[in-house]
Every structure is written in C-alpha cells, then in structure tokens.
C-alpha cells in the first residue's frame, strides 16, 4: 500500500457508532466491530466485515524499563536522552495498549445495497440492542485494516485520559 493510499484510507475512515465505554483501566475490554466498505470493482455492492477487537489492560511503562529499551543498540546520545526518563519520571507518563483482532469471530459478507442504506440499518440495529460495546465504521475497502487501526488509535487517545485519571486516583502515578 502506498503512503497516498494509506493517507486516503485514514482520511476517509468515519466512526458512525462509537462504543459508549473507553478501554477498561484494570481489565480487558472487548469491542464488536462492523466495518462497511465499497469494493472498487463491484459497483452497487458493500462489504461488511465484522469481528471482535479485544483491548488488553493498559500498562504503565516505568522509566527504568523505557531506558533499557531505548539503549539496546544505540550509542551515547541515546543514553543521554534515555537518562531524562529516570532523572525526571514525573514528566513521562507512557502507556502501552495492546489490541487483538479475534479471527475466530471474524466474518465478511457482500450485499447489493447502497452503502447509506446499509449503514443506517446497522446503526439502528446497534441502537435497538443498546449494545454499549459495538462499533460501526465506514472505511475504504483496500485498506480496511488501516481503517480499523485508525479506530483503535482514536479509542486509545480517548481512553488514555480516563485510564491516567484512574491510576492517579488509586495512587499508582502522580
């Protein structure tokens, strides 16, 4: 995939229904996604990919750990930079998030319907079920995985503030 294709995919990813909850601070979180795209070579057809995204429990990366990682294979300048992490840990709050796309729950189907009609129907189904962990995404067919990745990155940004607040409240970080 070219950088232009990737940029196009990221710019044309739209979350229609967001999960109502952020990533859990102290446990795993599972999201059910449906990603709707239009295949370029099949006019009037949409592709719906569905599956589970599982977010691991976020972890705080300690300055000593970060320092060790940064130094592997690097020289003196990297050591000086990495020392900033241990000398001023209050300035560095680095979180690690992990996601797993569960292939066993993955499905793909094609429908001969207008994309807007399919999106409206799927959105209504999610709202009727009151499923707080469902996600509906509109994306680009050739780069659907990049669209899903963009959703996860946006979810991480949304969740990080809540996760940090919870860790502060419990005294894990200052």
Chart the SSEs and their pairings.
Layout: H1 3-11, E1 14-17, E2 29-37, E3 46-55, E4 59-61, H2 63-71, H3 76-87, E5 94-96, E6 99-111, H4 115-129, E7 134-138, H5 144-169
Parallel strand pairs: 2-7
Antiparallel strand pairs: 1-7, 2-3, 3-6, 4-5
Helix pairs in contact: 2-3
Q: What does it look like?
A:
- This protein has 174 residues and is of the alpha+beta class.
- The protein has two domains: 3-58 and 103-168, no CATH class; 61-96, no CATH class.
- 41% of the residues lie in helices and 27% in strands.
- The protein has five helices and seven strands; from the N terminus they run H-E-E-E-E-H-H-E-E-H-E-H.
- A five-stranded mixed beta sheet has the order 1-7-2-3-6, with helices on both faces. Strands 4-5 form a two-stranded antiparallel sheet.
- Strand 2 and strand 3 form a beta hairpin.
- The chain is globular and about 60 Å long.
How would the global form be characterised? Answer: globular
Radius of gyration: 20 Å
What is the topology, as strand order, of the major beta sheet?
1-7-2-3-6
Mean pLDDT: 78
The helix count comes to: 5
Secondary structure tally: strands: 7
* Low-pLDDT runs: none
| Share in β-strands | 25-35%
Biggest sheet details: 5 strands, mixed
Find the structural class using helix and strand composition: alpha+beta
Number of domains: 2
Helical coverage, percent range: 40-55%
- SSE pattern, N- to C-terminal: HEEEEHHEEHEH
Q: Report how far apart the termini are.
A: 42 Å
């Amino acid at each position: 995939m070219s950088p232009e294709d990737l940029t196009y995919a990221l710019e044309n990813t739209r979350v229609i229904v967001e999960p109502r909850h952020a990533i859990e601070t102290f446990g795993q979180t599972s999201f059910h996604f449906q990603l709707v795209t239009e295949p370029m070579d099949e006019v009037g057809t949409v592709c719906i990919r569905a599956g589970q995204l599982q977010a691991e429990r976020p972890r705080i990366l300690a300055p000593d750990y970060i320092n060790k990682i940064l130094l592997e294979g690097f020289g003196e300048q990297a050591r000086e930079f990495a020392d900033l992490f241990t000398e001023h840990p209050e300035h560095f709050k680095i979180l690690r998030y992990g996601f797993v796309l569960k292939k066993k729950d993955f499905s793909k189907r094609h429908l001969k319907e207008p994309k807007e009609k399919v999106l409206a129907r799927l959105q209504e189904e999610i709202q009727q079920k009151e499923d707080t962990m469902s996600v509906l995404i509109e994306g680009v067919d050739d780069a659907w995985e990049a669209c899903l990745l963009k959703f996860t990155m946006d979810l991480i940004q949304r969740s990080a503030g809540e996760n940090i607040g919870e860790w502060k409240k419990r005294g894990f970080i200052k």
